[in-house]
From TrEMBL:
GO terms for molecular function: serine-type endopeptidase activity. The keyword Hydrolase applies. InterPro entries: Chloro_Bact_Ser_Proteases, Peptidase_S1_PA, Peptidase_S1C. Signal peptide: none annotated. Keywords: Hydrolase, Protease. It comes from the Bacteria. This is Serine protease. GO terms for biological process: proteolysis.
Length: 289
């Protein structure tokens, strides 16, 4: 009996000695998993801290997210080709025929293709749908060439025009384009930092200007080539929006588009306006589906 108990005890001891290395391995594996989880959490925390940092830290990252989706829209059309001729103002009247009197007059001599304007837009889908302003693409007789951020040129087709919101949608052929992330304009706050990207003055593509949300729900009358239009409940910002910036994105410091730049008050100190992105989301879903 004593012998049997001794043998049983020895067996258990040997068995326990056998499984001890397995328990140590499991503990090491568990420790490694915990360390990896902690490293992941630290990385996420560092990224969150970076995103929640100062505007100086956030702005370059946000711009990097938005700029690839911003495009320039070049407007071209056939315009009269004029020449100056000098003619007798009295025509073939025999009484004045011998008078050496000539006055200059413009005379059309055919037409020529010219750039007549420029604006901005931004990709809203990866398959080539582009948001812009209606007044950028209002001329039904013009052609619209889209210049992508990488220098590629594409012919644009106008898919939608909305005069009430001064909003339009273009389409270019192709796929795998870098589309903008659309934000939420309903929870904007006064004083919130924003930035605008656009084809400033029709010459300087991807120009960036920073400002704040200066006002909300503004109503105004804007003067364009086709006359006056009323804009309601738009965003006011002091980010510089120059001619040529029309149709470009107004974005927050997370790189999300919260408005479509639409108008500026000439002669003012940076009083500009953007159509809230929430106003056009349903249109985008319908047109770009």
């Amino acid at each position: 009996m004593v012998l049997a108990l001794f043998i049983a005890t020895l067996y258990v001891a040997q068995f326990e000695g056998y499984i001890a290395p397995f328990n140590a391995y499991a503990a090491l594996r568990d420790l490694r998993a915990r360390v990896e989880h902690l490293e992941t959490q630290m990385q996420k925390s560092a990224e969150n801290d970076k995103q929640a940092g100062s505007p100086e830290d956030q702005l370059p990252l946000a711009v990097e997210r938005v700029v690839p989706s911003v495009v320039s829209v070049v407007i071209t059309k056939d315009v009269p080709k004029l020449e100056i001729v000098y003619e007798n103002p009295f025509g073939e009247d025999p009484f004045f025929r011998d008078f050496d009197l000539r006055i200059p007059r413009y005379r059309q001599r055919g037409t020529e293709r010219q750039q007549v304007g420029a604006g901005t837009g931004f990709l809203i889908t990866s398959d080539g749908y582009i948001a812009t302003n209606r007044h950028v693409v209002e001329d039904t007789q013009a052609d619209y060439t889209v210049l992508l951020s990488d220098g590629t040129q594409k012919q644009g087709a106008v898919m939608y025009r909305d005069s009430d919101l001064d909003f339009a949608v273009l389409k270019i052929d192709g796929e795998n384009y870098p589309a903008s992330e659309l934000g939420n304009s309903s929870n904007l706050r006064l004083g919130q930092f924003v930035f605008a990207v656009g084809n400033a003055l029709g010459e300087y593509s991807n120009s960036v200007s920073i400002g704040i949300v200066s006002g909300l729900n503004r109503n105004l009358e804007a003067m364009g080539n086709s006359g006056t239009e009323k804009l309601q409940n738009v965003i006011q910002t002091d980010a510089a929006i120059n001619p040529g910036n029309s149709g470009g994105p107004l974005a927050d410091l997370q790189g999300r588009v919260i408005g479509v730049n639409v108008a500026t008050v000439r002669g003012s100190e940076n009083i500009s306006f953007a159509v809230p992105i929430d106003f056009v989301k349903d249109i985008i879903k319908q047109v770009a589906r």
